[in-house]
Fold:
Amino acid sequence: MDITYDVLVVDGLPIAGRPTPDGHAPKWSPSSVTLISSGGKSVLVDGLLTAEDGRRMVEWIDGHDTELEAVYVTHGHGDHFFGLEPVLQRYPRARVIARPEVAAAIPGQISGPMFTEVWEPLFGDKLAGTFPSAEPCGDAYDLNGHTVEFVSAGHSDCPDTTFVHVPDLDLVVAGDIVYNNVTPYVVYTNAEKRRQWRACLDLVAERNPAHVVAGHTDPDSPHDPRHIELTRQFLLDVDDVLARGEQSLPNYEEMVRRHPDRINRGALWAGIATQTKTRDKAAQAS
Ligand SMILES: [Zn+2]
Structure:
């Protein structure tokens, strides 16, 4: 076949913060980028987080003997494009592109409170010195005669997320809509947003892909489409566990019981503790 894809996964760094009730230190989740190549040209999907991630991407892309034409950013969260500086220095002709709603969200990650209160305290001098902006793009890209579709899907783990569909590869690169054996990040959700997230999963499932690459993935787990439904089940379990009316600790323990093997307990504890509070606030307001 004259179109191929390859995936690079990097492990998440430890981050500051208290351990979970069962003693797991906080860390970032492992993250992936996907290189789609045809005829000596390629598109990179997403761009990781740290300057070191950027150098690893350069080495990895160099190994593919390809001219990088574009980097597509799936959603406006810094951990999916902050690492691009070394890539854009090595491949200066590559354009950074994103759907218009994602391109509009990117500046808010690079400056303002998201940067000074979240990214800088967490990663500080591990971050690159410059960050890209993205040109708004249409919903399809022609890679050497193959269509690469960019699908705007809505709220998943943050507002305005998208995924990439490559029909000729039977491939979806799902950004943060699908998580592969990693804890889905529900801190920025509520019941309604988790419903919207499940609608994003419907859009991925409708493509009936044979391969699904999750933006946050267990490096040892194949890119299997069953993770669409496993992500849905996790989200339904969050709703189900919250509906029991218990507090954060028993809610967390129940989620651990239902999802014992998912990577990143810190993300589970942060998610369940915030969602228990969100549930209680919504109950007070109604
Ligand atoms: Zn992410």
Remarks:
- The radius of gyration is 18 Å.
- The longest helix spans residues 265-285.
- The pocket of zinc ion is lined by residues 77, 79-80, 176, 215-216 (CB under 6 Å).
